[in-house]
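Hello support,

Our group uses your service weekly, and this is the first time we've seen a run hang past the timeout. The protein is Helix-turn-helix transcriptional regulator. I'm not sure whether the cause is the sequence or the server load. Input pasted verbatim:
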Amino acid sequence: MARSTKDGRPGRDRDKPLYMISVAAELTGMHPQTLRVYEQKGLVTPGRSRGNTRLYSQADIERLNLISKLTDEGINLAGVVRILDMRERMLEREAELDELRARLRELEDEVHEYKMQERITALARYDSEGSPEQVMRRLLLGGAPGEKDEK
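Update from on-call engineer: The timeout came from a worker crash unrelated to the input. Re-ran successfully.
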């Protein structure tokens, strides 16, 4: 199961297994046996220590609190599984959308840059004034039209 922050990005500290089952039970207000049942049903997957002790992360605690909230609202465990699955897929899609939006902004910037280069090149007559690069250099550095670049 992929774990992520509320905004869909991977969370390092949130996923670090820290809490033994007794602490996790206290933090969530659940009985340790309930946590074992939830693990059996695949609702939560705690880490394990070298001695095979269950260790729950902050993300696990948050997930257990959400499970508790859903069951308190009358949703059975099968419904909770479906809701959690849909929520996970939603968070993954949100992360994908964020990545796509960032890539779109990069591409928009590139297109804008190319369009500006085209406009500048179209405005500058370079057939008698040198190459487009020389004209661009003069325009950007403030050289007068007709001045030739020295090499």
